[in-house]
Amino acid sequence: MVYDSSQNFPNNRSTLYSKALDIxxxxxxxxxxxxxxxxxxxxxTDLEKALLAEIAYKEFEADRLFFKREKITQQITxxxxxxxxxxxxxxxxxxxxxxxxxxGILVERAEDIYSFSHLTLQEFLTAQxxxxxxxxxxxxxxxHLTDTHWREVFLLVAGLxxxxxRLLLQMEKQAQSYxxxxxxxxxxxxxxxxxxxSKGAYKPAAKRAAAVYxxxxxxxxxxxxxxxxxxxxxxxxxxIASDLxxxxxxxxxxxxxxxxxxxxxxxxxxxxxxxxxxxxAHQFNQVNIFKTVNFNxxxxxxxxxxxxxxxxxxxKEVHHAFVDRLDNxxxxxxxxxxxxxKLSQKEANALQRYLExxxxxxxxxxxxxxxxxxxxxxxxxxxxxxxxxx
Length: 390
What we know:
By secondary structure, the chain is mostly helical.
């Protein structure tokens, strides 16, 4: 529809959806004008967009993609009652019928059960409801910054705003609140100190992201839970940190899940861990993001362990001793306290939320129409650093 109308596609996705919706509504309005349909006399395009946006938002906020006819008609009635210029002849059932039958924006999926014809429509209309209200934007950031269900809404809000500066700054402030323990502050501070003024041709925030990734990889990649018979090794934080690094133009880490084979003996897991260590060391040796780490020496020490990996007949104590040796080798090379990256579950969850939030900030910046250079450079400079009030 958009291409037929303008022979062009807008670069901004929010603009594309907005134009598509406008064309759909205007086309319907034109048909009603020709037919002299009474409902057109009251349900003009701007009013209908506001109505649809309110329905979309309230149902999305309630985590509902499907809703009952009675619920929708009540929402339409309430909306029309509070609109000063809404004509008295409009009624909720006629409006719902027009939207459903004649436009296809709302669809009856089962008897008296409705949804928007596509999730994208509900997400876009939800974003439109939020975009022009500073209080709603603040509520969105506070309640849903790390909620994956709301990710598209954030991106669309960023694209709908004339300037996304305020949105990004609010997201940054909320993200910083997740760094809420001294141990997390020390980990972030270590990453900053370890990478500052290094030779790698990457942005400082990317260097810090990769350093945090590597510190956490050391803790997660050694499969302590697997050694105790657990089937779950949490690599979520690694994936997020790796994605953040890629988003900042630093693609370093492979998905740790490729190295996990939970059905094999722990001895084989140790071989994988040692291979992962070597792989990581070689990759980081090439990108020069650390200021003082001697990765050639580290690689030599890891290579020397080839003949010392305990087999599956050895006791768990021997296996753990080998794991501790790997820990100590990396800690010495990175000049990090071995306990610093060993986070509690609560701290690991907080770090995960922080990294997810920063990743979304970057994605919203890309989706935005306009972000001022000064605001973005400030956000990027502060990203993965300890908040000033700490």
